[in-house]
Amino acid sequence: MTHEYERVIAPADALRLHLNENTAGCSPRVLAAIHQLTRHDIAIYPDYDAVTEACAARLDVSPDRLVLTNGLDDGILATAIAALKHSPREAPFESIIVVPAFDMYAACTDAAGGRIVEVPLGDDFVFPLAAILAAVNERTRAVFLTNPNNPTGGLIREQDIVTIARAATQALIFVDEAYADFAGQTLLGPALDRLPPNIIVGRTFAKAYGLAGIRAGAVVGAAATIAPLRRTVPPYTLNVGAAVALPAALEDIGYFDWYVAQVAESRQLLYRTLDGLGITYWPSHGNFVLVRFGMRLATVIEGLAARGVAIRDRSRDPGCAGCARITTGIVEHTVRCTQALEEVLCGAA
Ligand SMILES: Cc1ncc(COP(=O)(O)O)c(C=O)c1O
After folding, report:
1. Run of H or E including 175
2. Is 54 strand, coil or helix?
3. Is the pLDDT of residue 1 over 80?
């Protein structure tokens, strides 16, 4: 069986609430920085000193602990290659993936020649610490954890991550913090030094900072642990547009704070609507909410699409029968979504 990323296309004019993107767009300072690029800047290989410094400062880590990547996908691929590259054909190295999960962990494990070991979340999406520990063996080389989880929005306790890292010292424990900006909880900062050295943290600037299209991410960890990733990521993986966009986005803290607050308000608005409609959902720490529409799933997805709102069908993910994931971006967009939901489910005008 091969594993690949599923591309989900939405009509060009749809309100895109299906890919957890930033629905407001990036900070205006990003465009200003890109406009300042000269013909010469475009013609030469980019330098990353300034962007590395800016990124490390914002993430509160030293620059030698950080590898910039062309989106976090690039960091996931580099992690899989670094962890699995010497995998023997007859007894492949293994990646433990807690499912449901972002497609790229399986796709990159597959691409790097590793074996995928899926461990499902427990009832009501409880983090399956005991099952993960039971799945660890001498061939385990990577464990992919998402905090907060995509698509459930649930959090993992730091002590559970540490327990896994201590049980699998031969493996990279990749903690994907793609949505940590919305959760206000991270492993990054000075406390990183106290964590087991096989823990590495992935970050993306696609979500809260709105840079999905220009591609910018980072992997952070102990200098010796990320050294093999540094050798795996191509030397000019960020294009010059991303190299100037990222510092501009990072310094506009007012814009970032405003967007994170919009997302928090949007989640509450969506919860209130779903409570009113008597529909099950899982409270989320990300910029999205997983909702169980059950038998009405197809009606909801089609009804919203007919009203120009795209949401993501997650019903084929383990434990997610009847579920869709809805991005909670700016409040104005969430209001459009909740009104459309009420129309579809209650026939309200
Ligand atoms: C959990 C998770 N990790 C990583 C990514 C990829 O981030 P990027 O766009 O920076 O490659 C996503 C994107 O949706 C995601 O949901």
Report:
1. strand 172-176
2. helix
3. no
pLDDT tens digits along 7-21 = 888 888 899 999 999
| Tokens matching residue 90 | 């007859």
Average pLDDT over residues 228-245: 97
Buried b (16+ CB within 10 A) or exposed e, 287-314: bbbbbbbeeebeebbebbbebebbbbbb
Shortest-distance Cα residue to atom 12 of ligand 1:
178
Q: Which long-range contacts (CB under 8 A, 24 or more apart) does 118-127 make?
A: 118/318, 120/318, 120/319, 121/149, 121/152, 121/154, 121/318, 121/319, 125/149, 125/152, 125/154, 125/282, 125/319, 127/98, 127/154, 127/156, 127/157, 127/160
What is the Å distance from ligand 1's center to 71 Cα? 7
Please, how many CA atoms are within 13 Å of residue 6, restricted to the half-sphere of its CB?
A: 12
Identify the CA nearest to 161 among candidates 178, 146, 141, 140.
Answer: 146
Name the β-bridge partners of 68: 218
The verdict on the CB of residue 75 being under 6 Å from ligand 1 is no
> Are 221 and 200 in contact, with CB atoms under 8 Å apart?
yes
pLDDT in tens, 28-78: 999 999 999 999 999 999 999 999 999 999 999 999 999 999 999 999 999
Location of structure tokens 């010469």 = 40
Place of tokens 């054909």: 89
Q: What φ, ψ does residue 95 adopt, rounded to 5°?
A: -110, 130
Helix axes 240-251, 49-59, angle to 10 degrees: 30
State whether the beta carbon of 71 lies less than 6 angstroms from ligand 1. Answer: yes
What's the rounded Cα separation, in Å, for the pair 207 and 263? 11
Beta strands 309-313 and 323-327 are antiparallel
Give the distance (Å) from ligand 1 centre to CA of residue 349.
Answer: 37
CA of 145 to the centre of ligand 1 (A): 13
Q: Give the mean model confidence (pLDDT) for residues 133-157.
A: 98
Q: Where are the alpha helices (DSSP H) in 17-135?
A: 28-35, 39-43, 49-59, 72-84, 104-111, 129-135
What six digits make up the tokens of 225? 């642990």
